[in-house]
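Lecture 7 notes: from sequence to structure.

We start with a single chain of 417 residues. Read the sequence below before looking at the structure.
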Amino acid sequence: MTDSPIVSFAKAPALGLALAVSLPFSPALSADDDHVAHEAPHRSESKNQHNDRDHAAAKSGHDGEAEDSHEGEGAHDGEKEGGGISIPPYSRDLASIVVSPLKRAALPSLLNAPGEVRVNEYNASVVTPRIPAIIQKRHALLGKTVSKGTVLATLFSVEMADAQGEHLIASQEWRRVQKLGKSIVSDKRYTETYLAFQQSTAKLETYGMAPDDIRELTQTGKAKNLGSFDLIAEQNGVIVNDAFRLGELIEPGRAVFEIVDQTTVWVDAKISIGQSRGITPGTPALVRFDGQTRNAAVKQVLSQIDETTRTVSLRLELPNHDRQFKPGQFVDVDLVLDPKPVLSVPTEAVIKSPDGDLAVFVEDAEGKFALREIETVRQTQSRTVIEGLPEGTRIVTRGAFFVQSEAAKGSFQVHNH
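Now the structure, written as tokens:
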């Protein structure tokens, strides 16, 4: 009976192994059992690595499908390719995109300067008595258009009265000597009488008496109003000043009337000393005011420098037949300069790159556009002079904003070459 348990253990080794594992103090494992125990963790680790490879392969398959999916979208507008953006023909036509080669050409430069309208002093005159005189009557009013020879005012002067009396005596004596002739009158008296007559006539002219009135005084031998004479317009124009009152004593040199021919005006513009070096008489200019633009030309470049502003004054002559320009009016002056041929693009072709720099779109290949940063030199009303690209580069001159919006959809980046 005592052998029974032992026989049972020997005949059931699996059961004995199980009992040994479950006992707190189990006997040592056999060599075979130890080999099995060591292989178990390796099989588990190998299985995990296999699972990781399967997972990576699955992920790779998804990524491949994603790439295939993006490649399938290549026909969509605004596809990003190798640092550029491709736009199909129908989209370019729809957006009216225009591509033109960069060429050198003369581009007039506009130099802006402030200007002020002034009277054309070469077409203006003042009317003043040549002797002290009192104004008796006014014949013309401020703003009236007058012609040469128009009577403006009547004045009285004691000096004129004396000169008129002297002329009456001299003219009568001259007529009498002429009737007697040289056979009776000596040569000396004949000459003296003639000279007295001529001197009295010249004095009346110097005092401002009209030639027609002098002839009438000479022929009739009497004066209508002794001491009276008229102020007469010496040119065609408009009366722009008549600062006097009736009965006022006017001294010689004081302007009683100012007459200006307003068919032309001057515009005085001020520029810096450096800018004046390229300006000469005849340089064309544009005068802008109230949304209008008129053609003009530089008449004079004044040699003196304004001591306060340290600027040089230019004088432009401007037609003014419609009287649009008034003295004292402020205007803008654009001096048109002709520089050497330059590379320029329409201003609308210049845009800002994602990093804030100025750039243009360049066509690298048919329908493929890339952004190139540039430097701007100057700008006119519609074009911008640029640097940084060689002549012949094909530039998007119209529709740049459409290309930019398409590029933005693909997170387009700037590339400089």
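The CA atoms of residues 351 and 401 lie 8 Å apart. Keep this in mind for problem set 3.
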